[in-house]
Amino acid sequence: MTLDELFRRVIRSHIVLITVLTLLPVGVVLALTRATPSQWDASLRIQSTATVPSSSTEAEGLSSRVLAIATTPNVVDEAMRSAGLRGDPVTIAEQRVTAQRLGESPIVELSVTESTEARARSLVDSLSVGVLSFMNNADRQRFDDANRDVSRKLADARSQQDRLARRILVTAPGPVQDRLSQQMNQAQQTAAELSAQASALTLADLARGRAVIIDPGHATVVQVSPSLGPRLGLALLLGLCLGLAAAAAVETLRPKIPDARGLARALDTPVLSSTRQGTDVTAQTLSLAARRHGHPTLVLLPANPDVAHEQPIVSALVRSLTRRPPAEPEHLELPMLNGNHATSHVGPERLPRETVFADLLTLRPEDEPGSGMVIVYVSPVTQRSLEDLRDMLRATRWPLLGVLDATKRGRRHAAEPIAEPPRGPAGAPLQPQRSSGEG
Known about the structure:
Number of strands: 14
InterPro entries: Bact_polysacc_biosynth/exp
Strand content: 15-25%
Number of helices: 14
Low-confidence stretches: 326-352, 409-439
Keywords: Coiled coil
Structural class: alpha/beta
Organism: Pedococcus sp. KACC 23699
Coiled coil: 147-204
Shape: rod-shaped
Protein name: Polysaccharide chain length determinant N-terminal domain-containing protein
Radius of gyration: 51 Å
């Protein structure tokens, strides 16, 4: 099978099926897009830390931390309760909350998608507060514990220092007072170290980066438009693949001959003519083929006898070919006589017999012996119809002259009315006017 034949059998013969299956997913996508409610996207920008990340990996880590906190169901649930909203926090966290970093900066854009503008704005405001609270206070407990421990030790050292100072005042000079003075010095040294630690913790807490909202209370809310273009492209590609697969499956399970040329090759016969050429040309071509093969009668047989609409088309074609105007008598030029051209015409008895066109319904018994058959191709021929045609040829033993292409594009010419020749009072056709020199 050549590529051209494959194209005709699979694509051209099933173009309607391919078109329907191609447009079906497109219609489904359009219907789903129309039925999908509008979505609103609210976003706020959060500075996750005061220091600039040293690499894209560090910036991606900050963005991932914000996303991980924002998509925690407990954080989302607390944010929804704070905003007075209802819904499934797990679904919202998995499908409607996103976070993306802006370049290699510590800025992360937190976004929430909701069905209404008010819900999207309220939820992103409440969720951003929850994210900031967790980021700023998640490791605060360790600092508070260390600060309390240093403050307790510093208070103990100062208390011991005060006690030693009072004992030194009431103790007489001597070895005891010297030992108390040494303990006093150690207590002062310990208090100084603890005070330095407390100052260092305070400075570290002050220098620690805190996450902040860049523009609190001013979330950016936009309506989300569905990505119709890519969806339509994918739907069109899917539909085209389905259409081609279905056409190939249909052609495999029920093969058809897609055109008149293919039918002619299957029957090993030529394509004689096409009704697109007009009734006169078609009749002349068929008559010439009939005369060359010695058949005064041509029987036109539809290629699909089981198809209801093909037999009426063939019958109408037979009537159209039968009603065509008869050929005018042939004129013969004679030698010049007295300076005038003399002409003569060949009588009807010398003209070749006109070909009789018939179908199985109008064929007369006396015309059967000299009949030849022409297959009229109207629509794609199934394998079963091809076998029926071969059985008909074997049963009737009529010679097959060829195939006549009568597809839909050419039926307009076949259906055109043929003007009847003018007739005289007795009903006989009027002969054309002859000049005075005609014989």
